[in-house]
Amino acid sequence: MSKIVKICGATTDTPDPYITKAKRVESKDFWRWGSDNRLPKLLSTISRCSTTHRRIINDKADYITGKGFTFDSEVPLLEQFVSQVNGNGESLRQLINKVAFDKSLFGNAFIEVVTDEEHTFLSLYHQDAVRCRVAKDSKHILLHCNWDNYSPKEVISLPIYPLFEQQADGTLRSIIHYKDYEPGFDHYGVPPYIAGLGVSAIAYKTDRWNISRLDNSFQPSGVMILDDAVDNESDAERMVRNAEERFAGKPGQVMFIVKDGSESDNSRFVPISTASDGDWESLHDQATNDIVVAHSWFRSLSGLDYSTGFNSERILHEYEIALNTVILTEQEELLEPLRELLTNILKVDASSLEFVNRPPTRSKPIYMKVWEARKADGLEYDPQDKEQQYFLSEITKYNVTKIG
Question: Of all helices (H) and strands (E), which one includes residue 355?
Answer without folding.
Answer: strand 354-355
